[in-house]
Amino acid sequence: MSNDEIFMPFPKPQLNATFLRRPQRFLAEMAFPDGTQTVAYCANPGSLNGCLQPGSPALLWDSGDPKRKRRYTLRAVELEGVWVGTDTHLANRLVGQALLQRLIASLDSYEILEREIRVEEGHRADFLLTGIEGACYVEVKSATVVEKGVARFPDSITPRGLKHLESLTRKAEEGHRVVFLYLIQRGDAESFAVSDTYYPAYATAFNKAVAAGVEVIALSVTVNTEGFGRPRILPVNF
After folding, report:
1. Domains and CATH numbers, the chain
2. Given Cys at both, which of 73, 213, 220, 221 links 184, Cβ 3.0 to 4.6 Å?
3. pTM above the 0.90 mark?
4. How far apart (Å, rounded) are the C-alpha atoms in residues 228 and 39?
């Protein structure tokens, strides 16, 4: 992927590093090329099962703020020649750009009306779209784990994700259009499926959501050291 194929570049500045270990869910111990080490923020609540191997090349974003509790943020790691995006905070930016550029065929007639829209008390959806067919709620989830070409979500217990699914299922039951968009920040997935391996309750709720009319879109982006490639739609295995 050359620079002119970058759909969305990584925010600068960024630094090369080596992943050492993940002592806590939101922390990653890293080593710089000169041998110095740091603890970076890992903006991904999932397990990243199989994606974080000690010694893997990695990219860190430098906030430039020495007063920030964690100056550096882990952006991506390389796994067997494939770069994997690890920062879920970039997911909504990617999807927002794809919506604005009308790259998602089933949503290309909509405009973004609002972001972080309240759905119920304590629950929000990432986007509220508007179009001639009415409103559409879009919730974005990041899928990182790929097994035999299939991207899977979730990769850990996610009570918050379950509540999001349940609250938006209620919106669908009320007659609203609801879309769950699963973003895969790596280029080696050929399809997507919701897994019951790590959190069966989510898979059960997902099946109920689909039965209620919730739509599912899987969107994949390739990753390299400069940023993300153009999104592509993946088939969903129900």
Report:
1. 3-85 (2.40.50.580), 88-237 (3.40.1350.60)
2. 220
3. yes
4. 25
